[in-house]
Amino acid sequence: MSKESESGLLRLNASMPNGSKKRYVKSKSSKKKDLAPTPTKKTEAIPAQVKPPEYDVDYAQSVVFKPNTGPQTQYLASSEREVLYGGAAGGGKSYATLADPLRNLNNKDFSGLLVRHTTEELRELIQKSQELYPKAIPNIKWSERKSQWITPRGGTLWMSYLDRDTDVMRYQGQAFNYVAFDELTQWNSPYSWNYMRSRLRSANKDLGLYMRATTNPGGPGHSWVKKMFIDPAKPNTPFWATDIETSEVLKFPTGHSRAGEPLFKRRFIPASLFDNPYLAESGDYEAMLLSLPEHQRKQLLEGNWDVNEGAAFLSLTDKYM
Ligand SMILES: Nc1ncnc2c1ncn2[C@@H]1O[C@H](COP(=O)(O)OP(=O)(O)O)[C@@H](O)[C@H]1O
Ligand SMILES: [Mg+2]
């Protein structure tokens, strides 16, 4: 992108939403004044005001959000059907998951869902999206009633909570091309994650189908998340999805035209606090994590999956003593 259009876009973002409002009010009030026809002069002025500079979503995203090098970049570039970005607290996992849908959100066919386990946790994520999204997509609208972002071209992102297993019925009949769970180990069984996979479809092949999750080790779902994403392969290595009980690769069934072929790929991308200069540099957050009891420190600072709350001391004996 040329320097000129670059600065144009920066200005566009920097002036949102006030700049656009001002322009809109101006043209409206001038219309009111000139009810009598002197349209030719006005129509000359209007195109320059109402036609915004060509809008480049990829570029706008890169202006408002620059991924940290390393795992955050790998997470945003990952192409596997299901990806878990997990490990240390403060690595920039949730923030990256908010930025991820921005790439295609302004496509009319984009239909996304971002969930947290409870309403309180969701609130925090919505607040951050309200800081980020209007800078990346001018005129994007948040509907509190629907708990949904709606872009000028019609793409939508639903931000919701999923507390009990029965909550998934809310999404019966819905189709999403992007589904993300923030803090996946908050769900004590894989039921909701598996159900939402059944909602993953899109008529627009260009958008791809993605399920994304972030988490720290620990929490009620530690064990099933570990079996699904951590145990089958080395970190950062794509692998064919397995049945978490039998560890067998999931395949198309006998009689299917693709019988015996694996179904889809998964990948685990480990995060570390030190990947995120926004939190790591001052050292304050690290000091807080260092002050935690050993098993929590191992989970939240080191992103260690071999310690778990209940089994913490057992695992510690096995691994470290
Ligand atoms: N690429 C980035 N650009 C700007 N700020 C970032 C970026 N990544 C992370 N941050 C900042 O770091 C903070 C912590 O990241 P967060 O995603 O909440 O961590 P995690 O979910 O891994 O615990 C965010 O609130 C945000 O302010
Ligand atoms: Mg987080």
The global form is: globular
Question: What is bound: which ligands?
Answer: adenosine-5'-diphosphate, magnesium ion
Q: Mind telling me the C-alpha Rg?
A: 23 Å
CATH architecture descriptor name? 3-Layer(aba) Sandwich
CATH superfamily: P-loop containing nucleotide triphosphate hydrolases
Q: State the helical fraction.
A: 25-40%
CATH topology: Rossmann fold
CATH class, named Alpha Beta
Query: How many domain units?
Result: 1
Largest sheet, described in full? 9 strands, mixed
Q: On the 0-100 scale, what is the average pLDDT?
A: 82
Return the structural class: alpha/beta
Tell me the number of strands: 9
* Unreliable stretches: 1-42, 311-321
What's the topology here?
Layout lengths: L2 H13 L2 H16 L5 H12 L6 H8 L6 H7 L4 E6 L5 H7 L2 H4 L5 E6 L2 H18 L4 E3 L4 E3 L5 E6 L16 E5 L8 H7 L12 E6 L6 H9 L8 E2 L24 E7 L5 H4 L3 H7 L3 H7 L11 H9 L1
Parallel strand pairs: 1-7, 1-9, 2-5, 2-6, 6-7
Antiparallel strand pairs: 3-4, 4-5, 8-9
The site of adenosine-5'-diphosphate (ADP) has 17 residues, from helix 6 and helix 11.
